[in-house]
Amino acid sequence: MLHASLLPLANDRVRLRPLRAEDATAYAEGAEDPTVRRYAHLPEPHYTPATARAMIEGAARDGLERGDLAVLAIADPADDSFLGSLVIFDVTEDSAEAGFWLRPDARGAGRSAAALDLAIDLVRRSGLSGLTARTVTDNTASQRVLEGAGFVETGRQASTAPSGQRIEAVHYERWLPRPTPALPLTTERLALRLHRAGDEDWLRRIYERPEVVHYLLDPPWTPQLAERRLSERLARTGLESDAGALALVVEHESSPIGDIALWLTDAAHGIAEIGWVLDPDHGGRGYALEAVRRVLDLSIDHCGVHRVTAQMDARHGASARLAERAGMRHEAHLRQDWWSKGEWTDTLVYGLLADDVHPRR
Ligand SMILES: CC(C)(COP(=O)(O)OP(=O)(O)OC[C@H]1O[C@@H](n2cnc3c(N)ncnc32)[C@H](O)[C@@H]1OP(=O)(O)O)[C@@H](O)C(=O)NCCC(=O)NCCS
């Protein structure tokens, strides 16, 4: 279900808001444009100001109230005037489809891509995990817009448009992470919270130890590097955030003992990577395993990630055992694929699929 209460949404290029009766004339004029008529496949073959108004006060308003259809205005953020329309339809528990068009004089300024970004935000924050779109093979502008917004082509086939017309469609899909739940996450003995100002001191105390960074890419942390790394982590508040990453501090009895991160390596398809570091003074008690299991559960059960990988220096046996105990499969041993700290090193790749956790019947 779409949460209409999240509207309006805006960025520097457009405002996405419910249609209003005053938009009827501009909607009807825009819908008459030959490119819109050819490509947008609107439910009605023609709109007049009166039929547009009836749609706005009827199907569009009812759909938003029910949460299963959103026929929205793409508006100018400066004066709120109508520039085009974006519709989200075929809303199921998990996904929805989007279509969009702009008035001819509003094109050429990246506005439909900006409107799609807002639609993605609306759909994601409504708890859906995918947005699809269809376009026809010769609609290059629409394909470029969709690809620019992170949609990936999933196939080409004949299908029926909202107009009822049969079209040869290129199908697109954009995977969307479900929003991060309330933090901290808890386990039997641990709490996993976001980073905050002041964390640089304890982080440096762990990451300045040569035995900790030995198998990592960083040199031992200086105070400056600790500050830089903390500021990067402060932005990693969820897979749905601009950073596409979640960086958590692992706490035991309210003291930080390590950190764990999950980041998208392929946002369009829902592929993520996980990484962890535990203070050696707290090793051997299963804390890292407890934290890793919790974050893997979060990524697959909650965020809806398709695959999580973990990559590590092949000499780091403790990390490899941890990945295995957490249920990840050993998928590859890459020989001398990384030049690290003056020598060639091997990399182990572990992977966990959503299908491993919840096999499809
Ligand atoms: C699709 C539409 C909303 C895009 O408008 P827009 O956001 O202003 O996009 P632009 O016109 O700036 O074009 C987007 C990209 O396509 C390219 N493009 C535009 N027209 C093109 C054409 N005829 N042939 C090839 N490329 C074209 C642009 O160069 C731009 O490329 P870039 O991203 O690499 O810079 C608009 O063309 C429209 O309303 N079309 C009619 C309805 C429609 O097709 N809706 C989509 C149905 S799924």
TrEMBL record:
Molecular functions per Gene Ontology: acyltransferase activity, transferring groups other than amino-acyl groups
Pfam families: Acetyltransf_3
InterPro entries in the cross-refs: Acyl_CoA_acyltransferase, GNAT_dom, N-acetyltransferase
Protein name in UniProt: GNAT N-acetyltransferase
Record domain N-acetyltransferase: where: 14-177, 181-355
Record bears the keyword Transferase: yes
Superkingdom to which the source organism belongs: Bacteria
Keyword flag Transferase: yes
The entry's keywords: Transferase
